[in-house]
């Protein structure tokens, strides 16, 4: 895992003990998550996904998309392993560990890891109760709808300096973004009582207030 993570195939590899230890910790973290995993009720819930479940499902399918592209394209194994680490972090931080979405995430992580760590993923796959080999499983299918976020993180800037962030609807237009930003506590601390000479709105990213 370290060799695959450290550098793309066409680059020279510099040995780094710290990165070796980092990959060891990553594999240990995945092992612990599987060991501590408790299956959810077998009957799927009919309730809509919670915000935490939506965020986790977005992380799952972001990883599917990224790892698939890395393996099908230029064999960027280092960025693929990085995406696996991001997904493991999302699972570790999830607040829905007794949900079907978390189960989907655990199984997806192991299948995506299998080409890189075939032996440990085979062992962990059977630990989840499966009887067939992980290497006979179908590759996870991307659900593009899962990648669509209901909210985005809008960066609030004053004179080009970041003063805070704000969660806003993903479909908000330029006028709405400016209004959300202008009314935010982060902006008010720095623009109150000052003349706003210009407002720069970058949809989906930031709002920058130029004050005098």
UniProtKB/TrEMBL annotation:
Q: Which reaction does it catalyse?
A: tRNA(Leu) + L-leucine + ATP = L-leucyl-tRNA(Leu) + AMP + diphosphate
Superkingdom of the source? Bacteria
Tell me the CDD domains matching this sequence: Anticodon_Ia_Leu_BEm
List, alphabetically, the SUPFAM superfamilies matched: Anticodon-binding domain of a subclass of class I aminoacyl-tRNA synthetases
- Which ranges carry the Methionyl/Valyl/Leucyl/Isoleucyl-tRNA synthetase anticodon-binding domain? 54-175
User: What is one Pfam family matched by this protein?
Assistant: Anticodon_1
- The record's EC number reads 6.1.1.4
Q: Name one GO molecular function term.
A: leucine-tRNA ligase activity
Q: Name one GO biological process term.
A: leucyl-tRNA aminoacylation
Q: What PANTHER family does the entry give?
A: LEUCINE--TRNA LIGASE, MITOCHONDRIAL, LEUCYL-TRNA SYNTHETASE
Q: What is this protein called?
A: leucine--tRNA ligase
């Amino acid at each position: 895992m370290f060799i695959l993570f450290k550098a793309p195939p066409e680059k020279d590899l510099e040995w780094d003990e710290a990165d070796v230890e980092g990959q060891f910790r990553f594999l240990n973290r995945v092992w612990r998550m599987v060991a501590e995993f408790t299956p959810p009720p077998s009957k799927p819930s009919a309730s809509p996904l919670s915000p935490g479940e939506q965020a986790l499902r977005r992380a799952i399918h972001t990883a599917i998309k990224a790892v698939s592209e890395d393996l099908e394209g230029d064999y960027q194994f280092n960025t693929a392993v990085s995406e696996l680490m991001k997904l493991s972090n999302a699972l570790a931080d999830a607040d829905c560990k007794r949900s079907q979405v978390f189960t989907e995430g655990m199984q997806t992580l192991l299948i995506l890891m299998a080409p890189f760590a075939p032996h440990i993923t085979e062992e962990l796959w059977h630990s989840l109760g499966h009887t067939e080999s992980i290497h006979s499983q179908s590759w996870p299918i991307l659900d593009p709808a899962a990648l669509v976020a209901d909210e985005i993180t809008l960066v609030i800037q004053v004179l080009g300096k970041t003063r805070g962030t704000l969660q806003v609807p993903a479909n908000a237009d330029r006028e709405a973004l400016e209004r959300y930003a202008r009314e935010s506590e982060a902006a008010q601390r720095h623009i109150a009582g000052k003349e706003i000479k210009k407002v720069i709105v970058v949809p989906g990213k930031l709002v920058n207030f130029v004050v005098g």
